[in-house]
């Protein structure tokens, strides 16, 4: 909200300096005519010259400078306006006296110039002085009033001219009133617009806050639900390895797929929460792109089988520089989307080369995306209206493409969509080329059995603890467990530790690691299974060289992580 006085002073301060130039040139002409056609004392003319050619312009410039630095306080603004009124009243009186004493009635040319300057300077001042309620009155009445008085005193035909001058003055006063009214309307409209902008900004801020709270709440709920889902997944893995009738095996397989879908939903909720709060960190590495895409394609083969689709890769031996975790999420979400919505055809992952960058194209052979939906599908919790029947049973809550769009920003990638009735193509462009790296020798793995290995499980959630113990024992490991730091015994001496991060009462996996290392003569492999999302904690976990696997963990990934950690120690 801006006050009328503030706007008046601001506009006056922005008035062009040509006003001062016009004042000087006009008065210089009047002074010349007065010197030429009257017998005024030279001292008076010099005083007038100093007043109007030096002091008044200087004061006007000072007023403009003062206005720019004037605080928005009513007393100081009123003082400024009062000073302006006094100054223009002095100017109007001075100019009026000049015409009163030097009016060249005997010289038609000089008289015409004097009258023209009087009319012109008065009309020109309306635009700037009419912004204020009394300022133009303080200027115009002394100026044209003294001129009219002089004409009346001259008598004869000059009286009629005096009447015309007064009519002109009245017209200028009415014009100044209109200028002020228009200015007041302008201020009112500006304040309304400012109010609307403030309301929109407030509504936008509230919407953003609500959106952040929504994703935070969903992420929090996701975190709380991870424990039972994690336990369910481990129990089902144990059950799937048991001898079951064929019908029961099918039921277990469906349950495992449901658990994977639910786990993917939680991962999507966590991704969008981290992206909206700016807590996503990334680290650039050199990636073998062909192998990278092949690995992801293998991961999605079960989904492709369900969707009766196939995955085809067209990629030359390229190496790129990017964050493998974030880029993997981008490709996973695009590939998942293409398989679910692309129909029973081929989904192609194609790499094209442009200048110093690469482009990833994910092509499907579906029915395409309607024009009106091509923006909507990148919004959170939005899906295409034409959802295939088989998608209803998959982990589709409308976050995949929203995550892709947000992940492209920190990686400086562009995302484009081209769709027709023959299918859709999502293009991620801007992948930076990197230098080829020497192949990393494959890690040695253990035998399928974990017989003879002592694994300590530390988790304050009884369900997760019980599920982990059952599965690891089924895999042949010797298992001990603890629900708190105080239950970790010096005699445990584990070969590997699986620990949740937050163990209650301020105790964390770091405390468990320190206690285990104090008790063991050699470093013990340590894996943290947690739904922790705090980037500072995640960074510290990585700094300590610990492996973090987010809950709910897939049993196959847990098994691979255990074997990898133990193999690294045994080298």
Automatic annotation (TrEMBL):
Gene3D superfamilies: 1.10.287.130, 3.40.50.2300, Histidine kinase-like ATPase, C-terminal domain (3.30.565.10). The modification 4-aspartylphosphate is found at residue 500. Residues 454-566 form the Response regulatory domain. It catalyses: ATP + protein L-histidine = ADP + protein N-phospho-L-histidine. GO terms for molecular function: phosphorelay sensor kinase activity. Pfam families: HATPase_c, HisKA, Response_reg. SMART domains: HATPase_c, HisKA, REC. The chain crosses the membrane at residues 12-34, 40-62, 83-103, 131-152, 158-176. Residues 220-429 form the Histidine kinase domain. Keywords: Coiled coil, Kinase, Membrane, Phosphoprotein, Transferase, Transmembrane, Transmembrane helix, Two-component regulatory system. Residues 186-220 form a coiled coil. Its EC number is 2.7.13.3. It is an enzyme of class 2 (transferase). It comes from the Bacteria. This is histidine kinase.
